[in-house]
Amino acid sequence: MTEYNANQSTRREGIHGQHSHHHQLSPHESSPFKNNNRFSKRRRKMISNVLFISLSIIAALIMIAVIWLYTVE
Which phi and psi angles does 14 have, rounded to 5°? Predict the structure, then answer.
């Protein structure tokens, strides 16, 4: 006998209310494509952070240079 709740994330099986469990694959069981996707996502995020910081520093240096050029006579 399977009881089913309207909320699909909550599913109970049997009279004793045992929850069904989803089997998760260990890292060595997942496909190489999935691992590659995960690593490329992490790499893109790291590159994005490095570029943001470096370009922010460059922009700040340009602003300092412009302010210095206009204030020094």
Answer: 80, 180
Tokens of 45: 């995020």
For the sheet with 2-4, list strands across it.
2-4, 11-13, 18-19
pLDDT tens readout for residues 3-23: 555 555 555 555 555 556 666
Q: Which residues pair with 19 in a beta bridge?
A: 12
How many C-beta atoms surround the C-beta of residue 66 within 10 A? 10
The answer to pTM > 0.70 is no
Pick from 31, 32, 9: nearest CA to 20? 9
Beta strand pairing call for 18-19 and 11-13: antiparallel
